[in-house]
Design brief:
Elements (H helix, E strand, L loop, with lengths): L1 H44 L5 H10 L4 H37 L2 H8 L1 H23 L7 H28 L2 H23 L14 E4 L4 E6 L1 H11 L4 E4 L6 E2 L4 E6 L3 H14 E4 L8 H16 L6 H19 L13 E2 L4 H18 L3 H14 L8 H14 L7 H16 L3 H15 L13
Parallel strand pairs: 3-7
Antiparallel strand pairs: 1-5, 2-4, 2-6, 3-5
Protein name: DUF2254 domain-containing protein
Pfam families: DUF2254
Keywords: Membrane, Transmembrane, Transmembrane helix
Length: 461
């Protein structure tokens, strides 16, 4: 088992490398290989309508094979040197940014298509020039190949300028966080397509199900609920699947991910095999399928910048605003239109719970580092969103508010914090949540009593 597990991990690492970064550079390098063959063929055939152009280039730039060889040699050595130095510098920039913004920077840098294109272009150009250089052999003079190499070198030099700008631009906290934000929204759309084939209502029976366990450890990154629902409808009518782990959960080897309730053993055997086939376990969470992972990434960036490790409220505040926008976007989503086959698969979607936990955690870290700006931003988020979120989400927000009150004593009651608390209490009263509003009023008054007195965080309340 251990040997098979190691082999599976190696395959997964290779697949992840291509899905995250290597696919586009590899395709571009293959294009340059094809281009080298194409230009070599043109130089060999000497097409009639190209002859005037070829003679013009030969007379002014590529007079003989020695001149072409020297030019191509300079292009190859220069391209390799510049690419090496630039890549080293960029890695230093990324490393410096990661030291302040956590390792989430690496993930965003690798997944940017522009970064993949730049690397593939530089490596492909160097490889193209080397191949063309290898074909130079008097009396053969690759005029067309040399011209293409020379022209693309000019393009590459300009791309170096773009590469420097785009890399520095990508390292800005706002760009990193916004990139995660966009991927979270896209991942949620895909996740809702998966949820459409599931139900949150368990049948009211106490029948014990047959557990389905994983063959390897990792994160549950994908469940093809559509295929499972169709399989049950076609082969196992009357059977049910209960997924006990939401997307993004870590499961160890031989741990259960689902339970099967079926009328006979044949259905159980068939469904267990199909569940393993239609679920994906990976060594790393997948942001393209798991919006909760993106929320955790934003929370981690905010935690690192807000805590006493960095004490920088600006990125943390922007993270809270980003989570605010995510909550706002999801609040306006139409209810999931369930498929007719949804009743056979139970799945508990905990994405909103994860979003609320992130607000909780950031409130705690703002208290630890006495960053009242973060605390205010969270209060403002709830004040604006309480009357906009679906009714079933309001108790979750109220619970977070009550938890925040328990750590609020570490903050100084600034004017902005006082206004945020008063606005929140007024909004709660307007919505009829009098108990929570009263709790906010009492906590605010206790903190207000500390104003005008000499206090430390341990004696303020």
């Amino acid at each position: 088992m251990n040997k098979k597990y190691i082999e599976d991990n190696k395959i997964a690492i290779i697949q992840r490398a291509f899905s995250e970064f290597l696919l586009l550079p590899s395709l571009i390098i293959l294009f340059f290989l094809f281009l080298s063959y194409f230009t070599y063929s043109i130089d060999q055939v000497k097409i009639g309508w190209l002859q005037p152009v070829r003679l013009l280039l030969k007379n002014h730039f590529f007079s003989n094979s020695e001149a072409t060889s020297s030019l191509l040699g300079a292009i190859v050595s220069g391209t390799i040197s510049v690419t090496t130095l630039t890549t080293t510098l960029l890695l230093v920039i990324v490393q410096q940014s990661a030291s302040s913004m956590t390792t989430q920077v690496f993930d965003q840098f690798l997944r940017r298509k522009t970064n993949q294109f730049y690397l593939g272009f530089f490596v492909g150009l160097a490889l193209y020039s080397m191949i063309t250089l290898a074909t130079v052999n008097p009396p053969f003079n690759p005029v067309i190949g040399g011209t293409v190499a020379f022209s693309l070198t000019g393009v590459a030099l300009y791309l170096l300028v773009l590469l420097m700008y785009t890399t520095i631009d990508q390292m800005r906290p706002s760009e990193i966080i916004n990139a995660i934000h966009n991927r979270v929204l896209n991942a949620r759309s895909r996740q809702l397509d998966m949820v459409a084939y599931t139900t949150i209502i368990k049948p009211d029976n106490n029948q014990k199900g047959k557990e389905v366990v994983t063959a390897k450890g990792g994160y549950l990154t994908y469940i093809n609920t559509k295929k499972l629902a169709e399989f049950i409808a076609e082969h196992c009518r009357g059977s049910y699947i209960y997924f006990t782990k939401p997307i993004g959960t870590y499961v160890a080897h031989n741990e259960p991910i689902a339970e099967i309730v079926a009328p006979d053993e044949t259905h159980i055997f068939l469904l267990a095999k199909e569940i393993i086939k239609q679920t994906t376990i990976s060594v790393k969470r997948d942001l393209d399928q798991d919006p909760s992972y993106g929320i955790v990434q934003i929370e981690t960036i905010a935690w690192t910048s807000t805590s006493t490790a960095k004490s920088n409220p600006s990125p943390g505040t922007f993270c809270v605003h980003t989570l605010h926008n995510i909550l706002s976007c999801w609040s306006e989503d139409e209810p999931v239109e369930k498929d007719t086959l949804c009743g056979s698969i139970y799945y508990c979607d905990d994405t909103i719970d994860q979003l609320m936990r992130s607000f909780e955690n950031l409130a705690v870290v703002s208290s630890e580092s006495m960053q009242h700006q973060i605390f205010e931003a969270i209060l403002d988020t709830f004040s604006k969103m309480l009357d906009r979120v679906p009714d079933q989400w309001q108790p979750k927000i109220e619970r977070v508010i009550l938890i925040m009150l328990s750590v609020m004593g570490d903050h100084v009651l600034t004017t902005a914090l006082d206004n945020s608390l008063n606005t929140l209490a007024a909004q709660l009263r307007y919505l009829g949540e009098k108990e929570t509003a009263e709790a906010v009023d009492i906590a605010t008054q206790q903190l207000r009593n500390s104003v005008g007195k000499l206090n430390s965080r341990s004696t303020r309340v």
